[in-house]
Amino acid sequence: MLQVDSVVDLAYERIRELVLAGDIAPGARLAQVELAERLGISRTPVREALRRLSAEGLVDSHPNRGFWVAELSLDAVLRRLEVRLLLEPGIARLAAERRSERHLSELERAITREEKARTGSAAHDASREFHFVLARATGNEEHVRILDSLWLVEVGRRLLSRRATEVEWQGADVSEHREIAQAVADRRGDDAAHLMEAHVRAAVQHWEEKR
């Protein structure tokens, strides 16, 4: 028999998939009874899963009214980027102090993948992996967990597919990643942090102009 935590995890993953895939439209009400029946479980793990998704910003919670799928608007993306602007320079600094040769190799592979990418999704996935290698290089999985909650794969792909239509974007992103990787390789923590701050700030400025 599955433990309660396991059922909650399963409910969380399945509802998250439905939301991100668009099977449940933005703004739609998430009826707990219907979801429980759809997933073949009780309402309790569904409710706990919805609370977790609410904490991530994927679901809006209204006291005494229930849960709705969040709109995931550009404003929401910018709020997440604002947090990344505070978080990722610190990650880059720690990565420069703690990285291994394996991490450097993984950074180079991610950069090469992005450089050779021919679709927006491929460029996005390689770019995202670069940032996550840095987070793993800190040796603190909490950084990875927080970054994962801020940078949703499906949302990122949709946004980057729009930005990738700008011819200069991909080359600039690759170039900035190479500079950060070099600073990390040289253990220049302050430089890595400053370069990362400029890198994320450029994304913030880009999407602010699109609002």
TrEMBL record:
It holds the Pfam family GntR. Keywords: DNA-binding, Transcription, Transcription regulation. InterPro entries: AsnC-type_HTH_dom, GntR_C, TF_FadR/GntR_C, Tscrpt_reg_HTH_GntR, WH-like_DNA-bd_sf, WH_DNA-bd_sf. The keyword Transmembrane helix does not apply. One of its GO terms (molecular function) is sequence-specific DNA binding. The keyword Oxidoreductase does not apply. It comes from the Bacteria. Residues 5-72 form the HTH gntR-type domain. This is GntR family transcriptional regulator. It comes from Solirubrobacter ginsenosidimutans.
